[in-house]
Amino acid sequence: MTTEPSGMIEEAEARRLIARFDDVERRYVQRYGPSSQARVFVLMEELVTIRFALLDAAGPAAELLRRQRQKVARGIQRLYDLSPFPEGPPPPVRILGGNPPVIEFDRAVFETKYASAAKSMRSEVVFLEEWKPEPQDRPVAYMYVVDDESRLRIWTRPFRMADLILGRNRATVAGVPVAHPMLVPERLRVRAAGEITPVFSDRVTGAVVNLKSGHFRPAPPAAAAVRDACAAAIGMDPAECDVLTVPPVPDHRPETAPPGSSRRPETAPAPPPPTPTSPTTGAPA
């Protein structure tokens, strides 16, 4: 996938793009299983690629790509629904008022684990309306939060999609693994948090977003906070913001959690080989 404009996409090219991703998905399902993170990786790359392709498509090609976008987004959401946040000790947060509710991270835990490193990344955290993302040659994502004032903040260091989904090469600052509370050090409060991939040419017009913050664990209704923040900041059409949600731990979503508790570490499958891509569309070869 490339975020550089590539000229108008015709219907035949759109069909080839979809067919190549379908083939890669079938092979990954056979090798890693129908519910694997490897399959999520392929579908996420397809969704982002299609979103960019739609910037250069019209007529039948655009209609075909729009239908595929909806299909792929539903497929990813079904896989997310099979993977709620891990059971075990909840993160050190408390749920405040609001709709969607504000989630506040424990100050004592933050000062002990993250405060010093958060100062080092302050200059790399921007509001959405200030952000000028750089073109990339493969899908990338960025950490974000919607703060308690409903403004979307982004850490501008990109993550490769494979690293993000498969749990490889976790980002650190000053030797500390970066966590979402580090984006809101002043009040430690958010309405939503996770990762965002912008869709843009000369400006950001859409996004693919998730709510996969293990430190805040926002519930599915937080998707509305993301869409509202994007609309308020840059006038983004809510229909252009794909938000993928994560179900909460069944019957275990307390109003408060004891300080010092932590998320159970996740495990990831063996990483799949890189997906070969076309130099023009970014589709798997």
Summarize the model shown.
The chain has helices spanning 11-32, 37-53, 59-81, 107-113, 115-120, 161-166, 223-234; strands at 93-95, 103-105, 125-127, 140-147, 152-155, 159-160, 172-173, 176-177, 189-200, 204-210, 241-244. It is α+β, with helices and mostly antiparallel strands and 285 residues long.
Distinctive features:
7 helices, alpha+beta, disordered C terminus, disordered N terminus, nine-stranded mixed sheet, 285 residues, 18% strand
Describe the structure.
With 285 residues, the protein is an alpha+beta fold. Helices cover 33% and strands 18% of the residues. It contains seven helices and eleven strands. Strands 1, 2, 3, 4, 5, 6, 9, 10 and 11 form a nine-stranded mixed β-sheet that branches. A hairpin with a 7-residue loop joins strand 1 and strand 2 (103-105). The longest helix is centred in the N-terminal third of the chain and has 23 residues, at 59-81. The model is unreliable at 1-5 and 251-285 (pLDDT under 50).
Q: Termini, distance in Å?
A: 11 Å
Low-confidence stretches: 1-5, 251-285
Alpha-beta content class: alpha+beta
Given the structure, what is the number of helices? 7
Topology:
Blueprint: H1 11-32, H2 37-53, H3 59-81, E1 93-95, E2 103-105, H4 107-113, H5 115-120, E3 125-127, E4 140-147, E5 152-155, E6 159-160, H6 161-166, E7 172-173, E8 176-177, E9 189-200, E10 204-210, H7 223-234, E11 241-244
Helix pairs in contact: 1-2, 1-3, 2-3
